[in-house]
Specification:
alpha/beta, TIM Barrel, 8 strands, globular, binds 2-phosphoglycolic acid, Triosephosphate_isomerase, Triosephosphate isomerase
Amino acid sequence: MARKFFVGGNWKCNGTAEEVKKIVTTLNEAEVPSEDDVEVVVSPPFVFLTLVKTLLRPDFSIAAQNCWVRKGGAFTGEVSAEMLINLGIPWVILGHSERRQLLNESDDFVGDKVAYALIQGLKVIACVGETLEQRESGATMKVVAAQTEAIFDKVSNWSNIVLAYEPVWAIGTGKVATPAQAQEVHSELRKWLHDNVGPEVAASTRIIYGGSVSGANCKELATKPDVDGFLVGGASLKPEFIEIIKSATLKQNA
Ligand code: PGA
């Protein structure tokens, strides 16, 4: 089953309104492969979601960077899945390692969030990934399988989930996983999906790589059979994001 190449841009907690407008202008003017060949989703901070939605070209989509675990109410500072739906935001990133590590989001909590967001009708970029210590102790697959299982346990329909493998040691460090390291974990994750969810879900779920992806290193990564795209942080704020989107064509030729 063909998996459409997916490129997400995670802008994290960056930008002023002026800078956001500049990034959107660059994206709008870019010549990129058609939406039949690549799905592009950018993820601005909450406060700029409406601005980006108004300005962004219609063939690119938008994700929030988080949402609350259940229905809204007396949860100061939170944004609910219902609010994102109400604004017409189709995607949300959940389980990013920065939230797992800095805000102590547990595997279970992330699983609950993914399940609730899906029920409300959002599509989810669900992030998993090991720390350097976990990799060096040989626990990579155990960790990412446990993170994936916590989501799988609570979800019955995987068609609106993109799984993002983002090794924590590669995020924002300039230390990208080698294509072989990425392929190894992606193929293990697909095997995990095959054995625990089923062959159809394993064949159709996009597993994207994140962690110091750049215009230069995306090309070789994109040709790996189980790398179905990227979740890009730092480079998504720069014009080189366009190069990363274009790596979708390498995938087709691979
Ligand atoms: P990075 O971030 O590309 O800046 O390493 C990736 C991410 O956190 O999604």
